[in-house]
Amino acid sequence: MSDLSAVKALVFDVFGTVVDWRTSLITDFMWWGKQRGITADWPALVDGWRGMYMASMDDVRKHPERGYVMLDDLHRRSLEKLVDQFAIKGLTEADLDYLTKGWHRLHPWPDSVAGLTRLKSKFVISPLSNGNVALLTNMAKFAGLPWDLILSAELFEHYKPDPETYLGAARLLCLEPEEVMMVAAHNGDLAAAQKNGLRTAFVARPTEYGPLQKVDFEATGNWDIVARDFGGIADKLGC
């Protein structure tokens, strides 16, 4: 393992790394659909929704003249397309709001809260997520995530993997990039962070996408730490 004595803060990818978005949304929507008497293929809708995630952010990136659009609004736009595609009838404005804010109600992986709590004893810990500030704040309250602060792409008006997100996090923490460690279950996120001078830690979440998972079963880069879970990262950092 590299010398990590300079690291003072850990910033975390959230969707898939800290929280199990797929299981959380499917369980939530299946329960809600029964209460409302609305039938849909909720697993397929959730998978389709996440499948639109990267393209929706790329569209913002390609059209800076339109201004930054936060993730809640991108999620809502994608949902409206999926509702038409899946021919789901009878949804009210309140229903669409409830479904969109499902992304605020995500459950953590079993090791997340205990691991974050250990890491917090020695380091500043924060999300560094494409989620907007309200989404991440509400999720932290819902899931009991013990962040010291919220760092969001919204603060920089750039989505990961734009350099502005990684460098902006270090700047707001008054740290050099090498004093910040990015923790993620996605090799691409870590590659972008490493390119911008951050230290890196990989944790595998091989069931993030359920049966659709095709990548990120294991570390594929030269990351500073590779661990099975957040407890393993805490062990390696002496927490």
Secondary structure elements and their pairing?
Layout: E1 9-12, H1 21-36, H2 42-51, H3 53-62, H4 71-85, H5 93-100, H6 112-120, E2 124-129, H7 133-143, E3 151-152, H8 153-156, H9 163-172, E4 180-184, H10 187-195, E5 199-203, E6 225-227, H11 230-236
Helix pairs in contact: 1-2, 4-5, 6-11
Q: What is the top-level CATH class of the largest domain?
A: Alpha Beta
Strand order of the largest sheet: 3-2-1-4-5-6
Shape designation? globular
Q: Main β-sheet: number of strands, strand sense, barrel status?
A: 6 strands, parallel
Which secondary-structure class do the elements indicate?
Answer: alpha/beta
Instruction: List the domain count as a whole number.
Output: 2
Mean pLDDT: 95
Task: Compute the separation of the termini in Å.
Answer: 16 Å
According to CATH, what is the topology of the largest domain?
Rossmann fold
Uncertain spans, ≥5 residues at pLDDT below 50? none
Question: Could you state the order of secondary-structure elements as H and E?
Answer: EHHHHHHEHEHHEHEEH
Using only CA atoms, what is the Rg?
Answer: 18 Å
Examine the secondary-structure arrangement and name the CATH architecture of the largest domain.
3-Layer(aba) Sandwich
Fraction of residues in β-strands: 5-15%
Helix percent reads 40-55%
Strands, count? 6
The CATH H-level homologous superfamily of the largest domain: HAD superfamily/HAD-like
Helix segment tally: 11
